[in-house]
Design brief:
The chain is α+β, with helices and mostly antiparallel strands. It contains 3 helices and 6 strands; from the N terminus they run ββααββαββ.
């Protein structure tokens, strides 16, 4: 099966949560985005949009710049308050942020801005690019923390 949903291990502390695993060489990016939205049922708005965007950027980078095998794992942590994204690919090359231009370069800039944290784990001849997004912050309004409230927007004249 290309995509699977597996229960969390008891060692993770919350057996009611799920992990989602997608074989990126067998499913479409659209299917992966749908799985993100399904996993985040109960969350709404910009937080879900940000999660979909970060997953899509990491998946796109693996598909465009790396070699098979390519796998994406999504998991909820901290009782559903945090989404962890891991994308494995068969390339040992370090991903790099670059200055965006007409040919691209926006992906990791967006990941860096939207994710709470992100990084790369090297495993010899392959790597895992990971990111974490905080979905629920105590005392938050539910709006994305990187967006200014409308009252702080400049007035257009």
């Amino acid at each position: 099966m290309a995509m699977s949903t597996q229960p969390w291990s008891a060692a993770r502390g919350d057996p009611t949560q799920t992990d989602v695993r997608c074989d990126l060489d067998a499913v479409t990016s659209r299917d992966v985005r749908r799985r993100v939205r399904d996993l985040l049922t109960g969350h709404a708005g910009v937080v879900v949009d940000d999660a979909v965007l970060v997953v899509d950027e990491l998946v796109s980078n693996a598909l465009c710049h790396a070699v098979a095998p390519r796998v994406c794992r999504l998991s909820l942590a901290d009782q559903g308050r945090c989404l962890r994204i891991e994308v494995d690919d068969g390339s040992p090359e370090q991903p790099r942020m670059r200055t965006p231009d007409r040919h691209g370069g926006r992906g990791l800039v967006l990941v860096d801005r939207l994710a709470s944290s992100w990084g790369v784990r090297h495993h010899g001849h392959h790597k895992t690019v990971w990111a974490e997004l905080v979905l629920i912050r105590p005392g938050s309004s539910g709006h994305a923390p990187h967006l200014a409230p409308a009252r702080h927007w400049p007035t257009l004249r």
